[in-house]
Amino acid sequence: xxxxxxxxxxxxxxxxxxxxxxxxxxxxxxxxxxxxxxxxxxxxxxxxxxxxxxxxxxxxxxxxxxxxxxxxxxxxxxxxxxxxxxxxxxxxxxxxxxxxxxxxxxxxxxxxxx
Length: 114
Hints:
Blueprint: E1 2-5, H1 11-16, E2 18-28, H2 31-36, H3 45-56, H4 63-77, E3 81-91, E4 101-109
Antiparallel strand pairs: 1-2, 2-3, 3-4
Helix pairs in contact: 3-4
């Protein structure tokens, strides 16, 4: 997923913005959907995208914070997700050199209460 957003430690980054790419993967039981071929029996990628899009619209200073918010929002919104991995990449970061991107990976597991 690619978003134009306003995350960064520097005021200029939060004012001008830049492109971010996210790679998100999650684990869920898909056995019902495999049989039914019905989207209501699984986690809808469209719904996942909408949650991520909403989180990307909220400015943060750190990629770590963005990744944590996205992962937490997905676990909160979709009870069927057991594990999520979020890779947040800042494209062309302003570090004084030529870098394609910098990234951080956040992984979270659902904690079940017994």
